[in-house]
Amino acid sequence: MNQENIKKLKQLNLSNMASYYQDYNDVSEFMSLDFDSKLAVLLDYEINARHNKKIAVLAKKANFKIKPDLTSIDYSPQRNLSREMISNLSSCVWISQGKNLAVSGATGTGKTYLVSALGYRACMFNYKVAYIRVPRLMLDINISKSDGSYNKLMNKYKNVDLLILDDFGLAKMTAADTRDFLELIVDRNTIKSCIIISQLPISNWYDIFFHPTLAEAIMDRIQSNSYKIELKGPSKRGTLQNDIE
Ligand SMILES: Nc1ncnc2c1ncn2[C@@H]1O[C@H](COP(=O)(O)OP(=O)(O)OP(=O)(O)O)[C@@H](O)[C@H]1O
Ligand SMILES: [Mg+2]
Question: In this structure, are residues 196 and 70 in contact, taking their beta carbons and an 8 Å threshold?
Fold first, then answer.
């Protein structure tokens, strides 16, 4: 009977439920439950397993380079990081409102770490996230112009719920890069969220763009609807080892 049930659960694509049923069939704690409770345990197991699988798929697609947990964020006073703000951001309501987040701080202050944790949190809320370094993004866009995949690439980054642009401002942008950047920001503005990360103070971001008018158009959109985090303190590099690669 038990083997027949397991087969049928698998036929119905309820393989998580099937494996729980198989594993716990001789565990007295589970077997002593009444029918409703047993069914509830099995259903919860299936739902949780599917949810976790979905988060893992979203996180893989997001392409994070590190996968930290928000609980491991360091709130030492010298970091200038508000626990309250991170708690607000971790609710992900700001993503449903299409708000942005601008993060600045010197090298090694933990910008990528913090934002990756927020990005992973967004995956847990079923949001589609993409993480990319700006130099890589601009390179990919330029390549896509010559192989005909420009629209596809731009649509990929326009359509995710949360776009994380790391290492912004390492070099001044060309006119073409600035226009492409503007197009991404304009199309996402107020509908979908962006996190922009840079070593430069936010007030210096204007200078990265090719032309002051374009800089104004981009910065106005980023700034008018955004949270700001300016990380301070010493570099955390070399003191802790949490990187995936
Ligand atoms: N809260 C933290 N807990 C543990 N490790 C951390 C924490 N924050 C940062 N780190 C570690 O410190 C190092 C530097 O962090 P990170 O790469 O996020 O810095 P960054 O500000 O993005 O630097 P850069 O501007 O050079 O990219 C990494 O190895 C990271 O894993
Ligand atoms: Mg970084």
Answer: no
* Sheet architecture: strand order including 100-104: 129-133, 162-168, 193-198, 100-104, 226-230
Residues with CB under 6 A from ligand 1: 66, 72-74, 105, 107-113, 199, 236-237, 240, 242-243
pLDDT, averaged across the chain? 93
DSSP designation for 25: T
Query: Which residues lie below 8 Å from residue 38, measured CB to CB, with a gap of 6+?
Result: 30
The closest alpha carbon to 131, from 205, 58, 227, belongs to: 58
Q: Is the pLDDT of residue 241 over 70?
A: no
Sign of CA dihedral 39, 42, 44, 50: negative
- List CB contacts of 207: < 8 A, sequence separation 6 or more: 172, 215
Rg (CA), the chain: 22
The C-alpha torsion from 180 through 183 and 184 to 190, rounded to 10°, is: 160
- Residue 68 pLDDT more than 90? no
Mind listing the domains of the chain with CATH numbers? 2-61 (no CATH), 63-230 (3.40.50.300)
The pTM assigned to this predicted structure is 0.90
**Residue 244 — pLDDT band, cuts 50, 70, 90?**
very low
Atom number, ligand 1, closest to the C-alpha of residue 74: 1
DSSP class of 70: G
Q: Count of residues for the chain? A: 245
Q: What's the CA-to-centroid distance between 212 and ligand 2, angstroms?
A: 26
Q: How far apart are alpha carbons 212 and 92 in whole angstroms?
A: 33
pLDDT in tens, 128-150: 999 999 999 999 999 999 999 99
